[in-house]
Specification:
Length: about 280
């Protein structure tokens, strides 16, 4: 009886979608990837219950489950998941990795220390990006382009007036903006040019303009992206890089569990496979 109970708990999975405030202009896409992963886990014999991270019934449901796939970013959800993880629950992505990915200033410091190629002042072609450093962007006001230092000061002051004291200012790098998507422990890795299809969250990609499709070392970009993900500890990840005319590139962002809207079906297969790998290693 005990063995059967343990097996049922281990095959009971909670799938946590992001609250709308953490999914600006992407709520439908984020829901779609979580639904796709949940569907594949059900096909493999798991019982999956889906919740939004701010659902008041979520805490009780988590207490009665053995595993969780989570896009949650709220402090409350991450705290509970951290406690449950310390008690043996499998959580993908881990709360610690999500917290680091969301805290932009700490993430950039960790990536820089590890030698991941980042945007530097030496590469700047004019202009800056002013971003909140304490959390992921929840509105267009959290990530803005500044043409000069005067605009940097104005945008920084505006963030501080909103109570955001942790502000990151990065140099703007001209070139092809490339988005990447990956799942650790699998061969899944995809790239795309958002400037080709115009699919955008806040329209920031327009600053770089239409891509020129410069030649670059795709294998090297994948290695650096995976290395960045390993530094952050995030298993399901995405991000942005800029490719310059000479083929050199730098990473400008790393995210926990993106929407994978351009490669949803193949990403869902990889995420489900990675989750099962982790469960089998327990």
């Amino acid at each position: 009886m005990c063995a059967k109970t343990k097996r049922n708990v281990q095959h009971s999975v909670i799938a946590i979608r992001r609250a709308p405030c953490y999914s600006p202009n992407s709520e439908g896409k984020d829901t779609a990837i979580m639904n796709a992963v949940s569907s594949r886990l059900r096909q493999r014999g798991f019982s999956v219950s889906e919740f939004v991270e701010d659902d008041p019934s979520l805490p009780a449901a988590l207490e009665n489950s053995g595993a969780c796939i989570s896009m949650a970013r709220s402090p409350q959800a991450l705290r509970q998941l951290e406690v449950l993880e310390s008690s043996g629950m499998t959580v993908l992505n881990t709360p610690a990795s999500v917290r680091l990915c969301c805290h932009r200033s700490l993430l950039l410091a960790s990536l820089q220390k590890a030698g991941v190629p980042l945007a530097s002042a030496d590469w700047s072609d004019g202009g800056f990006w002013v971003k909140r450093g304490d959390a992921s962007a929840q509105s267009a006001a959290d990530v803005q382009f500044a043409a000069d230092s005067v605009e940097v000061e104005r945008l920084t002051a505006a963030l501080r007036q909103r109570g955001i004291s942790d502000v990151v200012v990065s140099p703007h790098i001209s070139g092809d903006l490339v988005k990447f998507y990956g799942v650790e422990g699998t061969g899944f890795f995809r790239t795309c040019y958002p400037g080709d299809d115009g699919d955008t969250k806040f329209g920031d990609e327009q600053v770089n303009g239409r891509p020129c499709h410069y030649d670059y070392d795709a294998a090297l970009l994948e290695r650096e992206a995976r290395r960045a993900a390993q530094v952050a500890g995030v298993q399901v990840f995405g991000g942005d890089a800029v490719i310059r005319k000479d083929g050199t590139f730098c990473m400008i962002d790393l995210n926990d569990w993106p929407s994978f809207s351009r490669c949803r079906e193949s990403a869902a297969e990889a995420i489900a496979a990675r989750f099962i790998q982790i469960m089998e290693q327990k």
